[in-house]
Amino acid sequence: MPSFAADVKNELAHKLDKKICCQTAELAALLRMGASITLGTNLMLGLSFVTENAAVARKTLTLLKSAGDVQTEVTVSRSQRLKKNNRYSLRVVPSPNVRPLMEQLGMLGDTEGSMGRDKALLKKQCCRRAYLRGAFMGGGSINRPEAECHLEMITDNYGFADTIVGVLRRMGFPAGFTDRKNHYLIYIKDGEAIMDFLSIIGATKSLDEFESGRNLKEVRNQVNRLVNCETANLQKTVDAAHYQNACIKLLKDSGALNNLSAALNKTAICRQENPDATLAELAEILLVSKSCVNHRLRKLVSLAEELKEKQKETGEPIEKIH
């Protein structure tokens, strides 16, 4: 079963912006997230891009073909380990046309192979959205809707990670930033923010699934809370009834029950005959209100506790009230 993150990437891979500027921004983020620079003869530059998602590989290939006159090769390798996905290796063959493409994508800066910031790619709102889409396809993951809310993008390039965080925060996202074993992690943990992120990168179907999953999760949580609350109330009712019966037994064994009013005596007998009944059920049997039954039982308990204290003071055998 494919992961939710894979579903999101598959959806995004079928979305192609009409604007060349957006295609450039998306390709730049994709390659910066998962590509490495290679060298050919005469120090001509090439690129190598690896992904485990076939749709992402196709999208990268499409964007490369649109961006420049470069030759590409694709190979698929099967992992020997159990339950591991295929690896799709996309190679941009070293040629004189690769350098202009990399300069266009902002991948060449003051030093050869620099993959830092490039504000020219991020001037427009539409390009920033495309940039984030490419970053997610290249190195993003997201938990399934029913799990804990967590979306992240991971890269081994600090400058690129810092750029992503800057773009996210500029757009109002509560993005976190940390490092993990020579990699840099950008993450969002707020459910509403994650839905907004899916919306701006164009994952509308995944957004609907995520929102439905969150709603279902919330309903389940509410049901669980109600069940837990009802269970706790039931336990309290059982414990209270057990204590009331113990108190009534103490009053009965001491003969004090016979000296009580007819109403208290009748209530005591009713409780003993119905040891597991709720207050509402006792009220229905006695033909009185629930508050009246509660008042009478509290009076019986109070009398039993007073009797127990007197037994302590006089040294008489003490009947335990459990």
Please describe what this structure looks like:
There is one protein chain. With about 325 residues, the chain is α+β, with helices and mostly antiparallel strands. It has 2 domains: about 5-200, Endonuclease I-creI (Roll), CATH 3.10.28; about 225-315, no CATH class. It contains 11 helices and 8 strands. The chain has helices at about 5-15, 20-35, 55-65, 100-105, 125-140, 160-170, 190-200, 205-255, 260-275, 280-285, 290-315, and strands at about 35-40, 45-50, 70-75, 85-90, 140, 150-155, 175-180, 185-190. The strands form 2 sheets. Strands 1-2-4-3 form a 4-stranded antiparallel sheet. A 4-stranded antiparallel sheet has the order 5-6-8-7. Helix 8 (about 205-255) packs across helix 9 and helix 9 crosses helix 11. The longest helix has about 50 residues, at about 205-255. It is rod-shaped. The two termini are about 55 Å apart. Residues about 110-115 and about 320 have low confidence and may be disordered.
Short description:
The radius of gyration is 35 Å and the shape is rod-shaped. The protein is built from eleven helices and eight strands. It is α+β, with helices and mostly antiparallel strands.
Count of structural domains: 2
Detail the poorly predicted runs: 110-117, 318-322
Q: What topology, given as strand order, has the largest sheet?
A: 1-2-4-3
* Cα-based radius of gyration, to the nearest Å: 35 Å
Largest sheet: 4 strands, antiparallel
* Shape field: rod-shaped
> Considering DSSP H and I runs of 4 or more, what fraction of the residues is helical?
55-70%
How many individual helices? 11
What is the CATH fold-level name of the largest domain?
Answer: Endonuclease I-creI
What is the CATH C-level name of the largest domain?
Alpha Beta
Proportion of β residues?
Answer: 5-15%
Overall average residue pLDDT: 86
Structural class: alpha+beta
Helix-strand sequence: HHEEHEEHHEEHEEHHHHH
CATH superfamily of the largest domain: Homing endonucleases
Number of DSSP E strands: 8
Q: Termini separation (Å)?
A: 55 Å
In the CATH hierarchy, the architecture of the largest domain is Roll
